[in-house]
Amino acid sequence: MKNGAFIVFKKELARFFGDKRLFFTSVIMPGLMIYLLYTLMGNGMTAMINDKTSSFKAAAVNMPQAVAEQLEEYSFSITGADPADLEKTKERITSGDLAVYIYFPDDFEDILTSYGTEHSADSTPNVEIYYNSADINSAHAYSQVVSVLDTLEKQVSNVFDINNTADSEESTYDLATDEETTGSFLSLILPMLLITLMYSSCVALAPESIAGEKERGTIAALLITPTPRSQIIMGKVGALSLMALLGGLSSFLGTLLSIPTLMQSAGEDAGAIDTAVYGMTDYLWLIALILSTVLLFITVISILSTLAKSVKEAGTMVMPLMLVVLMMSLTSMYGSGAHAELYWYLIPIYNTIQGMTEIFSFTTSAVHLVVTICVNIAVSLVGMFVLTKLFDNENVMFGKS
C-alpha cells in the first residue's frame, strides 16, 4: 500500500488545485491585490504631490511681486483684498469659493531688503494665512504657500549653507551605497509584511481543511481508514504548508514589485531601491526561512482547528495568535537591526523576523538562520505530535464532550 501521508498529501493538493476559485483566491489574488493596491496608492499620492494643473483662488494683501510670480507658477489665481473685509473673506474660504487668504504687513518688502541691519528680531514681519484644513484644495494651497515663503525666508536669512553642491566638487554627501540604502529600507518593512501575509495565508487554509471537515462530518471517513493518524497529519500539514507557501510568495512578489511606486510617492529616490542587489543565496535562505515558518504556523493553527468544532470557532481561536504575530512583526520597524546574540533566534516567530532582517540588511549569519530554521521545524514536530494525540482522541474529533 502506498504511503498514507503521501495519499493524504495528494488528496489535499487535488482539492486545492482542482478548485479554481480556491486556488485563485489563495494564491493569485493576494499578490495581485497587494500589487494593484500599493501601485494605485503610490500613483495617486505621486499625482497629488506633483499636480500642477489644479487652480487655487487666493486673496492677498500687500503681496510682494516676487511671491506672486512664484505662486502663479503653481496655478494660483491671486486677487487683491481689503483687510476690512476679513470676515467676508473667511466665509468665502469656509464655503470653498476661496482657497486661501494671505495678509502681508505694510512694510514687508522693506523689512526683507533691510534684514539684519536696522530691523531687530522684535520687528520680524508676521504673514497671516487663513485656510480650511478640511478642504483638500485649501489645504493643498496652504502647503504650497508655506513652501514658497519658507524658500524666501531661507534666501533672506542665508547666513551659511549646508552641503551646497554648487560650492563644491562633491555632488553627493551621502556615502551610503545603493545596496545599503535598499537593505536599510527593506529590512524595516518587508519582515513585517511577510510575516503577516504568511500568517494570513495559513489562516485562510488550515481551518477549512480540519475544522471544516469536522463540521461537515467528512473527517470520519478519513479516520476509519487503516492509514495511521500520524501519516494523515503529515499529509495534511505538508499540503497545507505548500499551499500557504505559494500564497505567501505571491504576496511577497506583489509587495516587491510595488515598492518602487510607493517610494516615489514618499518622495524618495526609487532608483536607489534595487532588489537586484540580492543574490540567489539570499533568496534561497529567505525561501527556507519562509517554509519553516509556514510549517510552524500551519501546525499551530491546525491544533487550534482540531480543538474547534466549526470553521467559525476556529477563526475565533486563532485571533489571539494573530495579535501576537502582529506585535512581533512590528519589532522590525522599531528595532535597530537584527540582534547579534544567538538566544534571540530560539524564540519562534520572533526568530524569523530577526532572520529576515539579517537577510534584507545584508548582515546574514548562517548560524543564526540555521538555528532559526531548526527551531521552527522542531516546534512544528512537537506540534504534530500534539496533533496526533488530538486525532486519537474521539471526544475531540467527534465533539462528544
- Beginning-to-end CA distance, first to last residue: 35 Å
Rg over CA atoms, rounded to whole Å, is: 30 Å
- Element pattern in H and E: HHEHEHEHEHHHHHHHHHHH
Query: What kind of sheet is the major sheet?
Result: 4 strands, mixed
Total beta strands = 4
Quote the beta fraction. under 5%
Give me the secondary-structure category: mainly alpha
Uncertain residue ranges = none
Measured as a percent range, the helix fraction is 55-70%
With helices defined by DSSP (H or I, 4 residues minimum), what is the helix count? Answer: 16
Approximate shape: elongated
Write the layout of secondary structure elements.
Blueprint (H helix, E strand, L loop, with lengths): L3 H15 L1 H31 L5 E6 L3 H8 L3 E5 L5 H10 L4 E4 L4 H6 L14 E3 L5 H21 L21 H39 L2 H5 L5 H37 L14 H28 L3 H7 L1 H11 L1 H4 L15 H11 L5 H27 L1 H5 L3
Parallel strand pairs: 1-2, 1-3
Antiparallel strand pairs: 3-4
Account of the 3D structure:
By secondary structure, the protein is mainly alpha-helical. It has helices spanning 4-18, 20-50, 65-72, 86-95, 108-113, 136-156, 178-216, 219-223, 229-265, 280-307, 311-317, 319-329, 331-334, 350-360, 366-392, 394-398; strands at residues 56-61, 76-80, 100-103, 128-130. Strands 2-1-3-4 form a 4-stranded mixed sheet, sandwiched between helices. The longest helix is centred in the middle third of the chain and has 39 residues, at 178-216. The model has no long low-confidence stretch (mean pLDDT 79).
